[in-house]
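In keeping with the milestone schedule agreed at the kick-off meeting, the structural modelling team has produced records for the first pair of proteins. Each record is given below as a sequence line and a structure-token line. The laboratory manager (R.T.) confirmed that both were archived under the project's standard naming scheme.
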Amino acid sequence: MIWANFKRAARGSCRGQEVSMKSKTDPNVVPLCDILLVLLIIFMVITPMTQQGLDIKLPELGTDDESKAIVLTIEKDGTANLNNEKYLTMDALENRLRELYLTRPGKSIFIQVHESIPYKTVINTIDLIKKSGVDIICAIPKRYK
């Protein structure tokens, strides 16, 4: 009798049930889900620490005189316009800039230069602006057509 049960087990049936000799082919997804949850938690913790941004100084509200931007434009012929006031010499421009920035709390200026003006003239103008007490010089680029 023992020998008969052994023969049946070798053939793959025991007590009327068939026993498969093949291994289980379905993947076990439980460890995969565990790994994915751990990775999700790691990325949720690390992501806020790696974010970087730019420090931006927003303009402050002020009176009408303080909130007007000062724009210096150097024209093609070399004359300087300061908020549509034409200055033929750099000395007159420097005196006017000193008057403006003596009492002005925001010491910034926008400068726009025609493309035909030599680089040396632009650097000399920037030096003149710095001597007048301006801290921040912003360049206005040429607009594309």
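The second protein of the pair:
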Amino acid sequence: MLKAARFLCRPWAAAILFLPLAVLAADRVATPEPPGEASLDWAPADTIFGTAGLTPLRDLAPERLRKTLENLKPDPPPSTRGAKEEQVYVKVSPAVVLVVTNDAFGSGSVLNAEGLILTNYHVVQGYETVAVAFKPEGSAQITRSNLMRATVTKVDPKTDLALIRVVAAPKGLVTIPLGNLAEVRVGSDVHAIGHPTGEMWTYTKGLVSQIRPNYEWKTSEHDTKHHATVIQTQTPISPGNSGGPLISDSGKLIGVNTFRSQEGEDLNFAVAVDEVSRFLARADSVALSSQKSTGKCETRASKRVADEKWKGFTTKYDTNCDGKVDAILVEPFDQSKPAVLYIDSQNRGKWDVEMFDYQRRGKFERSIWVNDDGTCRIIGIHETGTPEPTRWERCPSS
């Protein structure tokens, strides 16, 4: 019996996958050989992975996602904010998301009901796939729709702006409207909501110190120079606030909180909303080809063969053209059993993802991301049927 089958036979496993336990456990065979080099006749694949191969899976480490889900907590009732501040927070905070990569946390602002999100380029730099956490509602429990996959769709390194889009946006998204720079005055109150150092949905308030046209800065020592009109504020921001909204008293986005100066106190800067409007209108801001240089190749597949050891048909995949098997699809002879795709998602020589196609339609429905000992790390939900989850859930307690 497969290690995965032992895992799935736990009492809570059927609840995870919303399917009868018998479908998962009957007559499974030995654990597959580990991923690695293989002497096979490779051919271009009519691939289930698409042109991206395993890149979307490797962009997000499952342990990072698991910890993010564990740290998501409902927002306590406001108790210390003034009436105006509380109104801004209640109105805008549901439109602020947490952006998660393997390297850092950032913030973002939901612009429309289709899940288009504005953030900083430096938050998503080097990634094509990120995770987005939506704010839990009131005292509600964390649900499976809180952490979702998003793709980077448009970037502008010069102004340090980026757009990402949730793959399967939940219904009823709260959005934040764009203001304009004309309503920004030196000395006026401004507000920020973000996730400084991972402290989620934090509210801060300050004043506009000045508007700085044609400002240049770097977000890191090795970064290229950015250039844009920025709003200088006293609103405290920290790493994790990057990409989140600078908000007017009317609850409109007037800037994107981007960086703070190390040369003095209370020197915080947001890319001005007029830059955002120009970025959204430009077609030449698409620069995804420069996001990564991965040397992608066309995914290769072995022949689909009948294998008595597996009691089914197997197809092996090499998604990065290094001659190593990093995925294997097993289709049992018994049509009542699901097809299972085993993946070495982190290129460690170990199967760490098991994806299930229960209807045998070539579309995946659920996946289990496992620890080295075979225990559940995180659950993937595949609403589009592809190997890339559209959202993630925490594993139920055993």
